[in-house]
From TrEMBL:
Natural source organism: Croceibacterium salegens
Coiled-coil positions: none
Listed name of the protein: Cupin-like domain-containing protein
Classification of source organism: Bacteria, Pseudomonadati, Pseudomonadota, Alphaproteobacteria, Sphingomonadales
InterPro entries: Cupin_8, JmjC_dom, RmlC-like_jellyroll
Domain of life: Bacteria
Residues in JmjC domain copies: 116-280
Length: 343
């Protein structure tokens, strides 16, 4: 069975140099900004057809290989696992971007074409100069601490299974239509995440096929369905969604391209929480329930609560790692962690 979810909120009349970031960040919910990038040259080239879009991209492509995923026709474009969840249902290869574009074009009208997908390709490294003609004005204090990472995603009809990213995202639909099915972070248990390793592209993915969910095998997915939202994107539309929102991404046309921007509003010296999650599996998960509850209280106090509270009652010089985190303090904490891990 398939399911229909309500649409993501849509707004219009926003310019690429005047995105209301304060409003977006305060709401902490997905929103589609219609036509923000409609006048970008890449979008205009795409309106002329796949060949024109590919030719425009080739103007900027450098002669160095990108990572491309190739899946057999029988996977239906969905990059995932094999039936035993022992390996992936596709292969990865290194190929120059121009040659990858030619491969897509050569099979445009072939219903038995393999699924072809080059994702998360660094825009400035592989297509230098393209952002001079196709770019958002990222003017907000959130972007001051970490420079947003701009990437491009190119392929034919493909599906990225629902997963979460650790960063906020601005997804700009350039060529072809895309559909995002989004789930809030609290739906993680209802999405039946797969293995932590290996993963199709670095992030944990749902084991549920959202196009045709098996509710006998995954009954809690009904609750995820009740909380889902869908964003249908036309070329030029820009979707914002916050960090850790789960999202399935469907590229719906014969040739598709998307540019996205990832960022977190924290300094670059702050480590990824995924490392903490992995270490918590090692150190906390299998302890007695009473101990885990006690550790939950400690984490609420030191980590998830008011950041200033644990050190407020101490002289500033004595706060150490309980004081304000800066680059030097981050180095000290990292050294302590490494020292304990290497005992």
């Amino acid at each position: 069975m398939s399911f229909a979810a309500p649409p993501v909120r849509r707004v219009s009349g926003i310019r690429a140099d005047a995105i209301p970031f304060d409003e977006l960040f305060a709401a902490q919910a997905p929103v589609v900004m219609e036509g923000v990038a409609r006048d970008w040259p890449l979008v205009e080239a795409g309106q002329q057809g796949p060949q024109a879009a590919a030719a425009y991209l080739k103007r900027f492509a450098v002669d160095r290989p990108v990572t491309a995923f190739v899946g057999p026709p029988e996977i239906g474009g969905r990059f995932h696992y094999d039936a035993e969840v022992r390996s992936l249902n596709f292969t990865a290869e290194r190929i120059p971007l121009g040659a990858f574009l030619d491969r897509i074009l050569s099979r445009l009208d072939d219903d038995a074409a393999p699924a072809l997908y080059a994702g998360s390709t660094d825009l400035d490294t592989f297509l230098p100069g393209l952002r001079q003609e196709n770019d958002l004005l990222l003017d907000h204090p959130d972007f001051a601490q970490q420079t947003p990472l701009a990437s491009i995603w190119i392929g034919n009809r493909t599906i990225a299974a629902a997963h979460h990213d650790m960063s906020n995202n601005l997804a700009c639909c350039m060529v072809g239509r895309r559909r995002f099915t989004l789930f809030p972070p609290d739906q993680v248990a209802n999405l039946y995440p797969g293995p932590l390793d290996p993963t199709p592209a670095g992030q944990v993915v749902t084991m549920v096929d959202c196009r045709n969910p098996d509710l006998d095998r995954f009954p809690r997915f009904r609750e995820a369905m009740a909380n889902a939202q869908v964003a249908e994107l036309e070329p030029g539309d820009v979707l914002f969604y916050p960090a850790l929102w789960w999202h399935e991404v469907e590229a719906l046309d014969r040739f598709n391209a998307m540019i996205n921007y990832w960022w977190n509003p924290v300094p670059a010296y702050i480590d990824t929480p995924h490392t903490t999650l992995l270490h918590a599996l090692l150190s906390l998960r299998d302890r007695p329930g009473s101990e885990k509850q006690a550790w939950r209280a400690l984490f609420d106090y030191y980590v998830f609560g008011d950041a200033g509270l644990p050190g407020d009652h101490l002289p500033e010089a004595a706060r150490g790692s309980l004081g304000r985190l800066d680059e030097m303090q981050a180095r000290r904490l990292r050294a302590q962690v490494l020292n304990r891990m290497n005992r």
